[in-house]
């Protein structure tokens, strides 16, 4: 996975933590290594924990007795330490730490459209109340040998809830999550959501990644429950965020543990308490070789399949599309009155950009461009939106400057020679400010717009500065970013709820004015038909409690149509770089297996199939 995406995931989590009043912009800056020394000192606290490696029954001679892999990944130590508190602003382990070091309750298999058990053995859901009982496998243990129990998952769900990162919207985390016994986890929605759409309900709890244990984090749950007021609650939040658990103190639930971590490299060895990984006889050394350096050395067996890698042998390009569950989008702001008030202007800007070319140049090889711009990721949209509506939607992706001109002139824009004038007769100038991850992407977009005759102020800033100075105050006419139309929970509601209600860029919150709560559009499936009115909050609420898949698709189709017609953002392509190629000469790796098609693909593949030298 690319470094860009690692940071994106961390930034998104930090932004969520800022909602609870802890960390805020200082935590975001610190996450990217730009905090002051004083700020860094305030972030670190004593845990009272001791290194646990002496209690782990792993092969200490792994360097001599195991075969080594060199995954293409960098290390992110902070002050010579690798912090493994998942809530800490400095935690950024990426896939090799999070997906490999910690196990899931279940993972979603996108090809089958179902959850595949991990630590969960089975589950049952009451049809009337949605009360859920999850039976855990007794084969999984923490790296030190303690059993993984339902109490560990209760700790994880409750902590996420107290930090507004989990299921607290639908569940009373004080009463609705508990262990019936050591291997039975119970999750109950509040009465208000007992008729929640079943797939959406399952998406709230099933793919839980067990990064915390009751033994190391249970005290925070007790402190939250004892907190008497908001100030005390926030104080516990701050203590939790600052809990400095190091790589050799943490308990691992997943297939790998860290046996060594320093500024030069880190070694992961199979977790002897993991029911599958305990039989592996190879270890991973990360940080020694990265990207082209690893390929040139001949040492790297895995590499991130990203456009930055050049001259990779053909056999390594045969894998399925790397996909991170995010989309790259051009996002329109509210500062320019014409962009804000007229969907035709936003549509014209999209038509002026050559999105297929942008995708070809900047996306992972094989990535398709988005043909619909519905607010749902293009790789999932056909699952949630009626085919007839998709066929009738405007496709803004191919560059079409004639249509762009036809959209602008009726509003009063005038093409004067080779530059566009606003209806007021001024040169049309657009503030296009972006974060540094997207310098190449935004340069292509800026060039397209300038070739079309629009004066573009194109600024590229360091990401933390962009986050605080541009994104938070929405000080842009246009920008680009990820985390748009993600299908993040394999259900349309989370995507649309984020599009309309996200605290920073939600259309009904800070970006109000582009789309109102009550919106008029041509009737669904008929761009030239009569105008119809949709109440967006009502459509969202209806999705929560849809009685059938057909009803869910109806409401998702309505909102997808609204997004396509109003175009608050032009979705460009799904974001890739989420899994790896493997040296197929040396390792038995089946690139055709559908086991790739999961949310954490590489880990899932290893667990389902294993991997060993030929």
Automatic annotation (TrEMBL):
Alphabetical list of InterPro entries matching this protein: SBP_5, SBP_5_dom
Span of domain Solute-binding protein family: 114-484
UniProt-listed SUPFAM superfamilies: Periplasmic binding protein-like II
Top-level taxonomic group: Archaea
Descriptive protein name: ABC transporter substrate-binding protein
Native species: Saliphagus infecundisoli
């Amino acid at each position: 996975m690319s470094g860009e995406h690692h940071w994106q995931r961390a930034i998104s989590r930090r932004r969520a933590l800022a909602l609870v009043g802890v960390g805020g912009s200082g935590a975001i800056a610190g996450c990217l290594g730009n905090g002051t020394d004083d700020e860094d000192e305030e972030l670190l606290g004593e845990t009272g924990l001791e290194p646990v490696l002496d209690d782990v029954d792993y092969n200490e001679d792994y360097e001599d007795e195991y075969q080594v892999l060199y995954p293409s990944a960098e290390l992110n130590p902070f002050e010579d330490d690798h912090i493994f508190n998942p809530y800490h602003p400095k935690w950024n382990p990426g896939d090799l730490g999070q997906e490999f070091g910690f196990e899931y309750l279940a993972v979603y298999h996108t090809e089958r459209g179902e959850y595949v058990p991990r630590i969960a053995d089975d589950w049952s859901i009451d049809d009337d109340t949605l009360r859920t009982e999850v039976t855990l496998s007794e084969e999984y243990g923490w790296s030190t040998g303690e059993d993984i129990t339902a109490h560990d998952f209760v700790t994880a769900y409750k902590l996420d809830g107290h930090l507004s990162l989990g299921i607290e919207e639908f569940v009373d985390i004080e009463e609705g999550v508990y262990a019936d016994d050591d291997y039975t986890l119970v999750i109950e929605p509040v009465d208000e959501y007992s008729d929640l759409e079943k797939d959406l309900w399952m998406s709230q709890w099933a793919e839980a990644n067990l990064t915390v244990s009751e033994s190391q984090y249970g005290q925070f749950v007790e402190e939250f429950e004892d907190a008497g007021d908001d100030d005390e609650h926030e104080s516990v939040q701050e203590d939790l965020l600052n809990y400095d658990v190091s790589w050799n103190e943490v308990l691992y639930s997943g297939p790998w543990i860290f046996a060594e971590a320093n500024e030069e490299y880190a070694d992961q060895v199979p977790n002897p308490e993991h029911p599958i990984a305990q039989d592996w006889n190879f270890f991973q050394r990360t940080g020694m070789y990265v990207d082209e350096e690893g390929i040139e050395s001949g040492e790297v067996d895995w590499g991130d399949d990203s456009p930055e890698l050049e001259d990779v042998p053909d056999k390594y390009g045969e894998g399925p599309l790397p996909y991170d569950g995010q989309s790259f989008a051009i996002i329109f702001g509210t500062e320019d009155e014409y962009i804000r008030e007229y969907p035709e202007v936003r549509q014209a800007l999209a038509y002026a950009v050559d999105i297929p070319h942008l995708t070809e140049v900047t996306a992972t090889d094989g990535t398709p461009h988005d043909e619909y711009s519905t607010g749902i990721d293009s790789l999932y949209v056909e699952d949630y939106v009626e085919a007839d509506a998709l066929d009738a939607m405007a496709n803004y992706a191919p560059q079409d400057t004639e249509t762009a001109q036809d959209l602008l002139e009726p509003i009063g824009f005038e093409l004067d020679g080779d530059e566009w004038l606003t209806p007021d007769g001024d040169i049309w100038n657009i503030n296009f400010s972006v974060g540094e991850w997207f310098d190449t992407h935004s340069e292509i977009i800026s060039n397209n717009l300038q070739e079309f005759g629009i004066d573009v102020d194109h600024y590229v800033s360091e990401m933390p500065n962009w986050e605080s100075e541009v994104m938070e105050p929405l000080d842009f006419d246009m920008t680009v970013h990820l985390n748009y139309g993600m299908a993040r929970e394999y259900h349309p509601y989370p995507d649309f709820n984020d599009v309309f209600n996200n605290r920073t860029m939600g259309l009904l919150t800070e970006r109000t004015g582009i789309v109102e709560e009550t919106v008029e559009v041509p009737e669904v499936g008929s761009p030239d038909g009569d105008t119809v009115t949709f109440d967006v909050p009502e459509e969202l609420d209806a999705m929560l409690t849809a009685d059938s898949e057909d009803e869910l698709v109806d409401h998702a189709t309505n909102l997808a149509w609204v997004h396509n017609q109003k175009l608050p953002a032009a979705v460009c392509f799904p974001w890739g770089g989420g899994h790896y190629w493997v040296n197929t000469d040396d390792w038995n790796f089946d690139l055709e297996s559908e086991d790739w098609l999961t949310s954490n693909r590489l880990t899932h593949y290893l667990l389902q199939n294993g991997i060993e030298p030929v």
